[in-house]
Amino acid sequence: MKNLQLLLASVALASACSMTPAIASFGYEDASSLNAETLNTVSKSLENKININTANADELTALPGIGQKKAEGIIEYRKLNGEFKTVDELVNVKGIGVKMVAKISDMVKV
Questions:
Q1: Taking phi first (over 0 means left), then psi (-120 to 50 degrees means alpha), and beta for anything else, what does residue 92 get?
Q2: Fewer CB in a 10 Å sphere around the end CB: N or C, the chain?
Q3: pTM of the predicted model, to two decimals?
């Protein structure tokens, strides 16, 4: 039983450590204060988000307000400037403003 508890604690700690940047993006500063249910919710939410650094045009056009031209603009921006470091950098893409980024920020990740 003690070995199982140690194993579960190790897995939880490893998950929390690897998810710290993602958890911070959800407004939590420290993963150690989160319970397993919250960590699971954050993890599932991240799995469903579109990665703006790897998404193709079809995936990007699934986002509200992102048509073919804006999707191509995102891809072109990546080619010219490298990967996005934050979702907020989308405002640097022609045709995408602060309101658009706010609208899709919960649906995308870097």
A1: alpha
A2: N
A3: 0.60
